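R.M. (postdoc): so does anyone remember the format we settled on? I'll just put the structure tokens first.
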């Protein structure tokens, strides 16, 4: 009889459904019916190469945390409307499953908008092909249709991974900091809530995150979504008091406790004191609040994926590094902040037994000589031997011609009597102006002038760089030239357009060209170096101190933008597996648009160093 009772108890125990809920009466979460508080760290799968996910998750777990939080970046999953990518670095399902294997719960911030200092706040660029689109609003059926289509693909992938279904996902955020956006449209939030419930069911916790002002919390949420707040180091009493004003019952939650801060090109690298961050984290945890540290591992804005902020009509692009002065640095190294935070967390939870995961080694390969240079016009001839991809009477934006990222060359032909004052109305974002293949100067949307004096000539070329779409605030930020171009007040017409995207096809063409070395080649130019690497088991950093502004690729991997001329970042992170070990060749390509060091062979090099330099 005793054995029968034990057997029945075991059967009942095994059949008990998993649940993660809110106990409004006792102001806490319940995990399988027991009070629970999460201590989470932010990490974005799309900012960390997939072969390093396990390393970073182990280190987060070793700090005593019991959960991770990630955004979902719509733009990397649907780069072309209706065509989806969920492989490699963008395999969000595998990332979530791996987190479970490491014993971590998962909080998913599913968007569709995420901010995150990510390109266009996570929106796909093709949304802007419709010039009149109203983003983040129920007033635009085309926008809602695109969102609905995306959610119908994403959310069914998340459902089997919900906690109640045996997965690690305990809650899902709807939209992001919506209270900061001008539309303030509760019907939009209702629409999203209904979509999330349709695909995820009625049990999973759906929540919102906003700053703790009245307006933000009022506009950012609706009663059916659990309201949480975000704030950095400082007395947590007032922010949580504001949360209580709009969320009278339930657990206190800081969904973004800032461990550091974001950088902009041309400004100093942001740092936050480790002791201060740990001290205020202690105060949050002492209030029995749940918290997510943003970021715990910042990672990298590889490719063209950095976002941009705007202030006083100026564009403030975010660098390639998203180090964020986080407890784990851009390359996954422990920092002093990691250990300060770990001490505090372990006052409230038990740290996993055993030693900390071993840091990944860093290796210096020394100076790498540039062996080939190619002019902008040789590049253009190779990519577009038949002439421009498209033509129009007036300049079209990148989005209008189906281009998402990179550079766009505009060309028109001049007459002998055309003037000399060139004006570009609506430059987005930065341009190199050339007459008959000679650089006349550069213009920036942040300049006090949109005009330049040019030589008389026959062919006008304007190479425009997209420096990253705005991720927070006024999001409608199409790229290229969004107005007209005039010469002494006369509107220029009949434009040809050459998209320089550096996609896989274009990189293959450019990598296979013989090219040449020419001391007379001035930027914009393509520089190539081939070299042997003694190992691909250690990370390294691309040092570009002697270069000015451009983009770098290694073995087809887009390492991101460099701009040491303004800083703060002067190295680009190279994960170990981006290198090819002996006997294979490594091919490094730089597209330099401002100032080359290659007037002298002795100065025409890059450096592969074991030291990160982000300012």
């Amino acid at each position: 009889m005793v054995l029968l009772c034990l057997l029945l108890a075991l059967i009942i125990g095994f059949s008990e459904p998993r649940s993660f809920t809110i106990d409004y009466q006792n102001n806490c979460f319940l995990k399988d019916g027991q009070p629970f508080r999460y201590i989470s760290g932010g990490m974005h799968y799309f900012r960390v190469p997939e072969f390093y996910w396990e390393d970073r998750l182990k280190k987060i777990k070793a700090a005593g945390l019991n959960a991770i939080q990630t955004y979902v970046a719509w733009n990397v999953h649907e780069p072309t409307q209706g065509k989806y990518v969920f492989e490699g670095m963008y395999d969000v399902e595998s990332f979530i499953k791996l987190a479970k294997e490491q014993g971590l719960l998962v909080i998913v911030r599913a968007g569709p908008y995420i901010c995150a200092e990510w390109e266009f706040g996570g929106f796909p660029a093709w949304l802007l092909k419709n010039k009149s689109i109203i983003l983040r609003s129920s007033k635009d059926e085309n926008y809602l249709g695109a969102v609905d289509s995306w959610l119908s693909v994403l959310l069914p992938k998340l459902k089997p991974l919900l906690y109640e279904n045996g997965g690690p996902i305990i809650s899902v955020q709807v939209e992001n900091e919506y209270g900061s956006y001008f539309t303030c449209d509760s019907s939009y939030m209702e629409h999203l809530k209904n979509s999330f419930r349709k695909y995820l069911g009625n049990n999973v916790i759906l929540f919102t995150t906003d700053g703790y002002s009245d307006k933000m919390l009022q506009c950012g949420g609706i009663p059916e979504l659990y309201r949480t707040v975000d704030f950095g180091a400082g007395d947590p009493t007032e922010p949580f008091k504001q949360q209580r004003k709009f969320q009278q019952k339930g657990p206190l939650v800081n969904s973004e406790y800032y461990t550091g801060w974001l950088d902009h090109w041309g400004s100093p690298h942001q740092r936050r004191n480790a002791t201060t961050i740990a001290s205020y984290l202690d105060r949050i945890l002492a209030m029995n609040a749940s918290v997510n540290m943003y970021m715990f591992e910042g990672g990298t804005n590889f490719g063209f994926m950095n976002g941009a902020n705007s202030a006083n009509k100026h564009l403030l692009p975010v660098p390639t590094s998203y180090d964020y002065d986080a407890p784990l640095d851009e390359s996954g190294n422990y920092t002093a902040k990691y250990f300060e935070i770990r001490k505090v967390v372990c006052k409230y939870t038990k740290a996993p037994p055993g030693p900390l995961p071993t840091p990944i080694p860093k290796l210096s390969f020394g100076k790498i000589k540039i062996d080939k240079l190619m002019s902008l016009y040789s590049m253009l001839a190779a990519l577009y031997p038949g002439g421009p991809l498209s033509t129009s009477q007036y300049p079209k934006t990148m989005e209008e011609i189906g281009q998402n990222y990179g550079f766009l060359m505009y060309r028109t032909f001049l007459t002998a009597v055309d003037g000399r004052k060139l004006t570009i109305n609506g430059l987005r974002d930065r341009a190199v102006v050339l007459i008959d293949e000679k650089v006349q100067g550069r213009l920036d949307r942040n300049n006090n002038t949109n005009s330049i004096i040019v030589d008389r000539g026959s062919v006008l070329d304007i190479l425009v760089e997209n420096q990253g779409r705005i991720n927070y605030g006024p999001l409608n930020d199409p790229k290229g030239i969004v107005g007209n171009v005039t010469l002494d007040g006369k509107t220029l017409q009949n434009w040809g357009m050459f998209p320089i995207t550096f996609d896989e096809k274009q990189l293959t063409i450019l990598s296979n060209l013989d090219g040449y070395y020419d001391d007379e080649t001035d930027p914009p130019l393509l520089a190539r170096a081939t070299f042997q690497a003694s190992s691909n088991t250690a990370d390294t950093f691309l040092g570009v101190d002697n270069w000015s502004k451009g983009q770098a690729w290694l073995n087809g991997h887009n390492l991101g933008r460099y701009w040491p001329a303004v800083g703060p970042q002067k190295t680009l992170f190279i994960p170990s597996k981006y290198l090819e070990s002996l006997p294979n060749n490594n091919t490094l390509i730089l597209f330099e648009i401002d100032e080359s060091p290659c007037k002298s062979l002795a100065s025409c090099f890059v450096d592969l160093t074991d030291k990160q330099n982000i300012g």
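R.M.: ...and that's the designed sequence above, right after the tokens. Also worth knowing: Residues 433 and 439 are 6 Å apart (CA to CA). The first helix runs from residue 2 to 15.
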